[in-house]
Design brief:
Layout (H helix, E strand, L loop, with lengths): L16 E2 L11 H7 L13 H12 L19 E7 L8 E6 L4 E7 L3 H7 L11 E7 L1 H8 L2 H24 L1 E3 L7 H8 L6 E10 L1
Antiparallel strand pairs: 1-4, 2-3, 2-5, 3-4, 5-7, 6-7
Length: about 210
């Protein structure tokens, strides 16, 4: 099955917001970004570009070929992860909560308005997160993988989330942005912020901002 064509950014009928096409090459080597990656919790002021947000999302869960393979390995190609962006300072994108649609490389709006402060509070009051331009939320539908592998599948899901999170960290380094992985948060509170009707159990948060 071929990769679906890019969305027309002006089309409202789809209900999706198209993201700029991801870059497949960059100025830095993988060795360079591995050596530059550091956990950052002190962000400079300033927004990030929509293309940068799209690149981060693609790095985590983007589709890479006509067979729908993705940027992060998945046990049995079950793809249990769901990715959300809690935005506040992204050029051309209103503050709100968005769900990433990998096969269209697009965003689906879930809720509008500033939610970073509430998310920081849910993360055991880590107020530094409020300064992030966007907070990515990696969540998982465990049954997609446990349905095939049983209880062992839970381990595979966590492994996949680790792959996706590291991809975001490396992509952020390549873009000159900063991030870190946050695992300390109230699961129920994060789900309430994202929306109880949205799929997935939250596994980790990745606040991203300017260095």
């Amino acid at each position: 099955m071929p990769i679906p064509p890019p969305l027309d950014r002006k089309s409202a009928a789809s209900g999706l917001i198209a993201l700029p096409a991801p870059r497949r090459t960059g100025e830095k080597s993988v060795e360079a970004v591995i050596s530059e990656r550091r956990s950052l919790r002190d962000f400079a002021s300033g927004s990030i570009a929509l293309a940068e947000l799209g690149q981060l999302l693609w790095a985590a869960q983007g589709v890479t070929d006509a067979e729908h393979g993705r940027t992060a390995p998945s046990a049995g190609a079950t793809y249990p992860l769901e990715l959300y962006a809690v935005t506040g300072s992204v050029d051309g994108l209103p503050a709100g909560i968005y769900h990433y649609e990998p096969h269209r490389h697009a965003l689906r709006a879930i809720a509008s308005g500033e939610r970073r402060i509430a998310l920081a509070a849910a993360a055991l009051s880590q107020s530094w997160m409020e300064a992030a331009a966007v907070v990515l939320v990696i969540a998982a539908m465990f049954e997609r993988t446990t349905g095939k592998y049983g209880g062992r599948g839970e381990r595979f899901v966590h492994m996949e989330a680790g792959h996706a999170g590291q991809n975001v960290c490396l992509q952020a380094a390549a873009l000159g942005l900063g991030t870190t992985v946050v695992g300390a948060f109230d699961d129920k509170a994060v789900k309430a912020i994202i929306g109880v009707d949205q799929p997935g159990e939250p596994l980790c948060l990745l606040p991203v901002g300017r260095r």
